[in-house]
Amino acid sequence: MPPSLDRRTVSAALAALFTTAGASTPVALEAILKPPGGLPMASAGLIARRRNGSAAAKLAGGEAFGPTGQRPFGLDMPFRVASVSKMIATSVFVPLAMRTGFDLDADVSGPLGFRLRHPAWPDAAITSRMLLTHTSGLRNGPSYPVPLGHRLSEAFSMDGRHYDAGGWFGPAEHRPGAWFAYADVNFALVAQLMEHLTGERFDLHMRKALFQPLGLDIGYNWSGVSEAKRAKAAAAVRQVAGRWAPQVDASVPAFPLSTLTTSPGADLAAYRPGDNGFVFSPQGGLRLSLMDMDRLARLFVRHGEGVVTRAALDAMQTRAWALDRELPNGDLGGVFQSYGLGCETPVGTPGPNGDAFFGPGTGDWRGHSGDAYGWMTGLYWNRRDGRTLVWAVNGMPEKDRPAARNSALTAPEEALLALALGA
Length: 423
Hints:
Blueprint: H1 7-17, H2 27-33, E1 43-49, E2 55-66, E3 69-72, E4 79-80, H3 84-100, H4 109-112, H5 128-132, H6 185-198, H7 202-214, E5 219-220, H8 227-230, E6 236-240, E7 243-248, E8 286-288, H9 290-301, H10 310-317, E9 321-322, E10 338-339, E11 365-372, E12 375-382, E13 388-394, H11 411-421
């Protein structure tokens, strides 16, 4: 594990960074990418902004792997951002619900078009608020994700081909609404609700409602992303036999095609909005760059800039669930200790199993982290003082990760945050 970075180390590293223009990898990132005696990372980057919106640090280093081969990783290279995708989807769903009068506390069975109930709690309605806060009682079943050409409802009906012997439901003692358990299926259902409310495919509505108004060339499962942007793709990688092996996006579909989880003979043209919210991976499939993440962070800290309503963002950032170890009411400790609507609301619990990612003032920060296929990502903003911070690290193994000393993040992420917060 690399040593923790104190303020003097951070200042020296930043000074070195800004005096080494043209270096293939900034000096400040070398200890993160190639820690002495530690686990190497393929690439890393961050953008941190001060209270007034000016850039405090912009760092990118290491190597990217993708359709055009190996090259230096840059802030403009798109990648699969993992669970940050959930928060971006929520930033469109919540204002849509408010605008249409859709009740977040109402049973979602009607809008979904099928009865959604935990078999141990047949009289307990599952609501959108439960889906958005991971308190629905649902889990990712063995046949996750339900593929294109199949209906998501087949995972929740006893005679459905994806019911998986009830594997999509949590333990009977976890009543819907009472227990936090992080599960991607919640956001597949949120995307499906969005399709029912709009009559449009999830990816197309996200583009119309958020990406195009912001001028962002981004999309879920590459939907809508330009050919030029796709050519810059950075694949998610992990080490296999001492070499970086792509896990996702080693190749990218040509514009305007999308990357989809498919079954033989599945046809996107035949897809009906509202049938299967997994199709465009709202839970993790957004492709964007660190520069794009930075733009979204500024949107959030500036109260939506008229694109997303302030009321919706306030609702997202309000704590809807917080860990109570005495009850208990969720998994004990780790990254998720408090949660709003599709948004992490850290409380600042100290220690290696806590969520004090940003030090003593962590409780003022909001955002979301991501973890999939080798990418570790984060998009956060400080709602008290206006700072923003986005980061990405590529090359993280699935198991035996280098642990951080001061929070439940990984050591490379903690070192990146030390650089950013010391800038």
